[in-house]
Amino acid sequence: MAFSMTNAVRTLLLTAAMATGALAALPGHADEIHDQRALSGLETGKGIFDIGIGNPDTIARILEVVEETMDGMEAQGVTPDLIVAFRGPSTRFLAADEDLIPFEHQVTAERIAERIRRLADRGVRIEACHIALRGVGVGPEQLLEPITPVANTFNSLIGYQAKGYALIPIL
């Protein structure tokens, strides 16, 4: 029995070594990860991020991912044409006046503001739904620069999709 256990162990080790070698030969290592299948033939990548969530930490992280998306497109030879549309409870964190933001979220709201400014500097259009802004008590004149208020983000989403922008819902 000890002899067959040794053979079983050898077989297992040999199988593991072969599998490891086979996996190493497959494409897809971290230095080779890309989106070329999806992006091939594109000169411009058009997308609209529909942010309708109310968690400010998640919003800040999503804005980081938008920037990573831009970086990835550019690294693969595609020019990003992106829009970030805020609606619903996400609009609560877009006021320039920190007194309009709940105290417990002011630090995160500043991170959101910084990311919004950075994205806008890179050419991303940032919009906020006026209907939602009214609901959270933020007037269009109280918005962070460079956010543009729009009458109704649903209209924007319909219009941009009709113009070829991919919808990326963050709900």
How would you characterize the overall build of this protein?
The chain is of the alpha/beta class. The protein folds into two domains: 33 residues; 137 residues, 3-Layer(aba) Sandwich (Hypothetical Protein Ychn, Chain: A). Helix content is 47%, strand content 17%. The chain is built from six helices and five strands; from the N terminus they run H-H-E-H-E-H-E-H-E-H-E. It has a five-stranded parallel sheet, sandwiched between helices. Helix 3 links the parallel strand 1 and strand 2. Helix 3 packs parallel to helix 4. The radius of gyration is 23 Å and the shape is globular.
Secondary structure elements and their pairing?
Blueprint: H1 2-25, H2 36-39, E1 44-51, H3 56-75, E2 79-86, H4 106-121, E3 125-129, H5 130-136, E4 148-150, H6 153-162, E5 166-170
Parallel strand pairs: 1-2, 1-5, 2-3, 3-4
Helix pairs in contact: 3-4
Q: Which fold does the CATH topology of the largest domain refer to?
A: Hypothetical Protein Ychn, Chain: A
Globally, the shape reads globular
Instruction: Note the total helix count.
Output: 6
Question: Which percent range fits the helix content?
Answer: 40-55%
The side-by-side strand order for the widest beta sheet comes to: 4-3-2-1-5
CATH architecture of the largest domain: 3-Layer(aba) Sandwich
Overall pLDDT metric: 87
What oligomeric state do these chains adopt? single chain
Q: What is the level 1 CATH name of the largest domain? A: Alpha Beta
Could you spell the SSE succession in H and E letters?
Answer: HHEHEHEHEHE
Return the domain count. 2
Main sheet summary = 5 strands, parallel
Spell out the CATH superfamily of the largest domain.
DsrEFH-like
First-residue to last-residue Cα separation: 59 Å
Radius of gyration: 23 Å
